[in-house]
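pasting for the record
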Amino acid sequence: MTDFLITGLGNPGGRYDNTRHNAGFWVLDELARRRGVKIRKIKFHAVYAAAGNILLLKPQTFMNLSGRAVRDAAAFYKLPPGRIIVVHDEAALPPGRLRLRASGSDGGHNGLKDILYHLQSDRFLRVKIGVGGPPDPETDLAGWVLAQISEGDRKILDEAVPRAADAVECILREGIEAAMNRFNGAAGE
């Protein structure tokens, strides 16, 4: 029986591995490592792994089209939006900072926008990983999140990934309110 769908947002392919937009994929990889599973089964326009009562899902449709994979997996397992956790990058937060939410808008994030459209609900849970915004307001945001990360920023994000995985596990054990109280704002304090 599957109780939760945990989706990490990112873009497939080696060219995107070291980009800010793949922070959600990194957290899913950490959760898979902790649970001793490999995310490599193919279904729902995604790669996935079952890990006990949770499904770890990495859409392979590219970030802006993530909703179809989430919708199809949720429908297959008959999971309501409140049983879906979406882990994603957030340019509006400083690198490494976490913010958890029980619902809300897309906040300008195209991956979330597509999930909102396909689920027809904003009641899914979110774990946002701050990746920071462009240093210059003239810099294109899409280009920024898809650019290769500097060594310094990657170190900060590598330290945030286990905390984000801890936040997901806290949601699973104690619920979203407890996780928000413990992890919102967390940046290694």
